Every structure is written in C-alpha cells, then in structure tokens.
Amino acid sequence: MLKGTTKSGFNFEINEKRINDWRLLRKLKAAESNPLETPALLDAMLGSEQSLALEKHLEDEEGFVDPDVMMKEIFSIFDEVKKLKNS
Predict the structure, then answer these.
(1) What per-residue confidence (pLDDT) applies to 84?
(2) pTM (2 decimals)?
(3) Scanning 14, 15, 32, 40, which has its CA 20 to 30 A from the CA of 50?
(4) How do the domains of the chain map onto residue ranges?
(5) How many other C-beta atoms lie within 10 A of the C-beta of residue 22?
C-alpha cells in the first residue's frame, strides 16, 4: 500500500496493484486526449470513496471544486506516488 500526502494536505492510500493496472494506463491515455475522462481516471486510481473525499477536501467556501485545482492535485498525487515507488 502506498501512502502519501499531496501538496494541499490530502492524505491518500493507493494499492500498488492499482498503479500497475493496465486499465489505469488506458484511463490515463483517455484523459490526456479528453479531459472529461479525468474523473474516471481519478476513481480508477484512488477508488470512488477517496475520490469523493478529495473533492470534499478541495471544495471552496461555496462548495465548488475548481477543475484547475483538481488537476494540480492529481499531478501532486502522481508525483508523490513516483517518490514512494522509488524509495
């Protein structure tokens, strides 16, 4: 299990098998060409429960989540996972 914290302070856990799953790579490729696929990528990577918790973590005072903020957080997760796998 890979455990990390994003730059904004969100704590996550990802089963290493999820990171090495072919289907995650397919979702990553789909999200690269179509940003509307990003929520499916996030669910595949974190699972729906953690994905929803991340959304809640990133909500502004009015309850909205800025897509740019979410994308920065996703990149932060990928960076953290890379560090965890290399340590």
Answers:
(1) 77
(2) 0.85
(3) 32
(4) 2-78
(5) 7
